[in-house]
Design brief:
By secondary structure, the protein is mostly helical. The chain is 84% helix and 0% strand. It has 2 domains: 2-73; 84-118. α4 (85-100) packs antiparallel against α5. It has helices at 2-57, 67-72, 75-82, 85-100, 105-117. The protein is rod-shaped, with a radius of gyration of 28 Å. Residues 97-118 are annotated as: Disordered.
Amino acid sequence: MKVEIDKLQKELDYTKGLQQKERKRRREVVQELEDFKKRFNSLNASMSNIHRRLVKKGLIEKCEINPMSVANGSRSQNKSFHHSKTRNSRIYSQFKSVCDDSGDSSDSLNSNSDEESD
C-alpha cells in the first residue's frame, strides 16, 4: 500500500511539473505572438506611409484596392483585383512595352498613360 501511494505521488509530482512547463511555454508563446503582432502592425504602418508618399509624389498610381489589405488578408477587397482581367492586361501591356522599349522608358510610360486618358 505504501509503495502504491509513493508511486502515485511521484506520478502526480511529474504531472504537475509537466503542467507548469506547459503553462510557462504557453505564456512565452502568447508573449511572442503579441510581439509579432506589434512588429507586424509597425511594419504595416510603415508600408502604408511609404505607399501614401509614393502616390503623393506621383511615382505610383493609386490602386483600386489598398495594397495593405493584401497583407492584412482582407479577401473581399482582393477579389476585385484578381477578377479585373482588363485592368491586369492593361497593366501587363504597359509593363511589357516598357521592358521591350530600347529607348527611354519614361517616354513609353507617358505615351501609354496618354492613351488611357482618352
